[in-house]
Each structure stands twice: as C-alpha cells, then as structure tokens.
Amino acid sequence: MLGLSFTLLLLIALVLGMAWQVGKTMVQETNMSHLRYEATLLADEVTQQIDMRIEALERLSEMIGPTDDASWISHQLRQNDSLMAWFEGIVVANRDGKIIADWPAIVGRVGLETAEFEYFRMLRGIRRPYVSEPFVGRASGMPMVLVGVPRFTEQGDFDGFIGGVLSLDSGGIFSRLAKVRLGEKGYAGIATSSGKVLYHPNSSLINADVPSKEFNPWLDLALDGWEGDAVGQLVQGEMALQSYSQVWSAGWVVGLYLPVSQAQLPLADFIRQLWWTWVVLVLLIFPLLWWMLGRVLSPLRHLEKQIGEVGLGHRESVSLATKMQELQQVASTFNRVEDERQLLLGNLQEREAFLDSVLNAAPQGMFVANMKGNITYMNPALLEMLGISTDVPMQTWLTQVHTDDLEGAKDMWLHSLQTGSDFVRQLRFLRSDNELLWLDIHARVVMLSQDGHTLGLVGVVKDITERRQQEAIQRWEAEHDPLTGLLNRRGFERRLEEAFADFQKTSTPSALLLFDLDHFKPINDEGGHALGDEMLRRIAQVVAWEVRRSDHVARQGGDEFGVLLPSCTLAQARRIAESLRQSVSEISVTHAGKEYMVTLSIGVTTFDDIDTSVEDVLARADAGSYKAKEHGRDGVVVNMPNDDVMELFDQHK
C-alpha cells in the first residue's frame, strides 16, 4: 500500500513537473510577445511625440525667419503660446549660442551663453534637429532635455537654434509610460544612447547612469542600437523578461521589464490548485484501493504465514486454498525447494560434524578465518599450544605476538586476503606463562570451484621453538671459538666483509688490530696445553672487557687474535691497542711455583680508499704485527697505506 501510494504521488509530481516546465516555456513566449508589442508601441508613440514637437519648432523657425531682432522674436513666441502644451519653455539663440529670446520669460535666461553646451555644438555640427542629453534646469531644478531645431540664414549658414525644453517628470512626453502597467513589479523605462536614464518609475534614478555592461549586457546592446528580447537581471537582483526598442529620432532606448516570478505567478497558482485537486482525489480513492488490495493480497498473506511456520519448523510444507494459478505455482516451487534444502542441510550437518571431529582430533594447531581477517575457529591443539581459552577475544591475544613480528605479519595477512595468495610466516608468540614460542604459520585461501567465490582461510600452526633454538646454537657454534667464546676466523671474516662493504658505500671509518702472544710457547711446553688454554681464556676475557661493546674480537687460531673496530678513527684505535697491550701484560698463570706472563705485538691499520678487498687490510695489520716483533715485541705498530716508515709505539723502549 505504501509503495502504491508513493507511486501515485511520484506520478502526480512527474505530471505536475512536466506541466510546470511546459507552462513556463509557453508563459515566457507569450509574455515576450506581449513585451515586444508593447515596447514597439511605446517607441512609436514617443517617436511620434518627438517628431510632432520637432515639426512645431520648425514651423516656428519659419515664422521668425532669419533675424536676430529680439523684439520680433519675442512677439512671435507670444503669438505661439499654444506650444506651451508641448514644452515647458521655448528659447531662441543666435549663431554665437547666446539666448536672445524666451517664452515664458524667465529672469536670467535671456543672455545665457550656450556655446559650450553639448546641444549647441551638436546642432551647429549636424545642422538638423537634435534632442539633447538630460540636464537640470536652473530655475526649476528638474531634469530636462532640449529639443532643438537649427536656424539658417538666407545663404544657408548656421544662424542659431530654436529649442523647446521638455521636463522628464511623469507628465508631458512620458505621460503614456507612466500609465503602463505590467503587473505589480513590471515597468517601462527610457534611456539615452549615452547611458543616462530619462524615465523610470523610481524618480530618484532619473538622470542617473544605467547599470554596467557586466550587470545587464542586453541593455548595453540596446544602447548600441540593438532591438530584441532577452532574459536578464534587474537592479534589484531578480531575473526579468526584457524587451528593447529604439526611438531613432531622439537617440533613445525604450525598455520594458517584467520579473520572471511575476510572469509565472498565474502558472504557479494554477499548478498549486492542480496539486491540491490531485491530493484530494488520491485521498478519496485510497480507501477503495486499500479494500481492493486487501482482497487481492489475502492469499499472499496466508502464503507468507505458512512460509514463516515452515521456517520455524512448525510445518513441513505450504498449502493454499486459492484459485490463483500463479500462487499455486509459487507454493509448489517453494515446497520443492524446501525439500531440496532439507536434504542439503542434512548433508551439510554431516559434513560439519565430520570436519569438527577431524579438526578436534588433529595433533597440529589449526584455525579458520573469514575474509574480513577475523579468526573464527581454533582447534584444541592450537588453544593448548598458545595457552589461551576460547573466550579470549582476538584483539587480546594478538598483543602477545612479539612486537618486532606483529606489523610484518599484519601486512602479509592483509596481502593474502586481498590477493588470495598463501600466508606463510614465522613469528614469535609470548604465552601467558611468559614462555616464548617460535610459530610457523601456513594459511591458504579456500574458494568455491564453481564461481571462484572466496570463503575464507584455513591455516596450520607448528611449534618450531626447539628447532629455532637448535639452529641458533648451530649458527653460534659455526662462528665462535669453543675455548674462548670469541669469534672464530669464519665469523671474524664475515664481519670484516660487512664492515668493508659499509666503508665502500658510506665511507664509514673502521680500524683493524691483529696480534699474537709473545712468549706463549714456554707455557704450552712446560705447563701443558691445559695451562695454555687457561692463559688464552684469561686473555680473551681481558680483551673483550677493554674494547667497546660494538667491536668484534676473534681468536683466529692458536695464539692469533684480531679486533675489528667499526666506526673508529685511527687515534681511537691507537688508544685501544695501547690499552690492550698494557692490560694483557699484567695477566699471569702459575705452574710448579713458576709464574708465566705474555706480551702483545699489535699491528694497527684502518680501511683506505685504495683497498680493493679485506685481504689488503689484513695484510697491512699483519705486517704491522711482525714489525712490532722485530722491534723487540710488546709494542704497537701503525701501518697505513703509502707510509714509508711504520709508526711504532713501544712501551718498554
């Protein structure tokens, strides 16, 4: 019922909208035609008024003749007093522009010089009748125009003019415009081609400038001589129908303006009445429609009720007592679909029970996630592995993933959800009992084979903590000396290669110390290898203590040692080498009442731009160590590239 009501209202709105659009077009065309007719009629009337006044002034000019006799001219003006019905005053000027006679006589007007006035220059130049630009009368203070006719001598030379003064108030020549009625807001106006307002219902605008071209381009075209119709903006800001016509004899433009809102007002009233008529009609037919729909939809309500009962399990099928073949077909189809659904539901329940048994019995940790990325199921093995319960929300146990592994795992998880690729990741997980686990996770996206629809992800989780610990021990043993715990030759050379690569890329300075033990052989020969091993362990502890935490100390074999000093200058390396030499010289071991001590012969060098490999650096440091032995042992020798003489630091010399 609501749908039908909405459809009716939409149809009514559509019909009324179309009627409004068509009506607006027709109303605009009709009003435009009326404005065009009125504008032409007004322009013709004003043209006729101007032409009659010009003809009257020309006849008066013929009566006066070519004379400058002020008495004679004044007599003729008084004899033609009837012209005062058309003019507010008549003036006569000589060839120099000086007023020599006027009627009615006004003090100060005779003798007025007009040579510099616009209308005198135009009359003398064009030598034909001319209507002046508006000006304010001296005596009356009212806006006026002058209709002027040139006078000529018998030889045809310019001899002054006869002018009739017209007031621009609501009377006189514009009395017809004052009576024009275009509704409440429509009006007529006249302007000069130069852009001065001659007539407007608002008298304060007379003699003012017309609106700018940007504000009303159609009026600007009319001032240039265009006649026509348009829709444009008024001074008040509202849109209006506009029509323009020309008064060619005076150089004036007649404009008629009718606001669009006023032009469409009758149409709006009609549409409003039509709307309420439709509303009343719809309200009247609603009860009838409601009753008819109730009769038609009664079997559908029964069908809906029985379908609901089937869904709740209160009945197995639907049965309708109706003659509508369509509803009987719907009921039959529903019963068939329900039978198939029950069969599929039974199979699905069997499969779910089987899958639950498999997942619960699986010794490996397994989980299921939906396509939003949320884990919806974890089997008992996984819950036991992680040490969490089923009621712990995902957001809580995610915080137990190691912070260094969490962001990378999230990025890979989102990538798998978006692309359908497998999720393979190893990460650390901190159980609630603070045991750190290493987990290997492999999840695969599950899709329907028919349409490729993604269902979610199924994953397997393995505890690889023991394997990772064993791998870590193996990696440590592969690069460390079992006697001293220092780096062995293999581990030391790998770190040398890494430091040398950083030096080539970023010019990071690094230093290298190589040394072996002076007087170590008697310890092994007289005290045995156990005593020698004890000395090596003590030396390793002292050397590791004296260097920085970022430095790498290695026992490369026998009594040979190396120290890599990353980000270390040569001056720092010298101080560290001297500290090592001094500290080791104080170490001793005792056997059979005899004390044994050793010293260091240390070679020092740094990476240099001429080095092509770490072998060049090792060779320089080794040469420095041999040089220290040649100088009596227990010393430090700095060996740098291109040095003619090695720099020797000898404590005992």
Automatic annotation (TrEMBL):
Keywords: Membrane, Transmembrane, Transmembrane helix. CDD domains: GGDEF (cd01949), PAS (cd00130), PDC1_HK_sensor (cd18773), PDC2_HK_sensor (cd18774). One of its GO terms (molecular function) is catalytic activity. Pfam families: GGDEF, PAS_9. Its cofactor is Mg(2+). Residues 508-641 form the GGDEF domain. The keyword Membrane applies. Residues 423-476 form the PAC domain. Residues 351-391 form the PAS domain. The keyword DNA damage does not apply. The chain crosses the membrane at residues 274-293. InterPro entries: DGC-Regulatory_Protein, GGDEF_dom, Nucleotide_cyclase, PAC, PAS, PAS-assoc_C, PAS-like_dom_sf, Rev_trsase/Diguanyl_cyclase. PANTHER family: DIGUANYLATE CYCLASE DGCT-RELATED. This is Diguanylate cyclase.
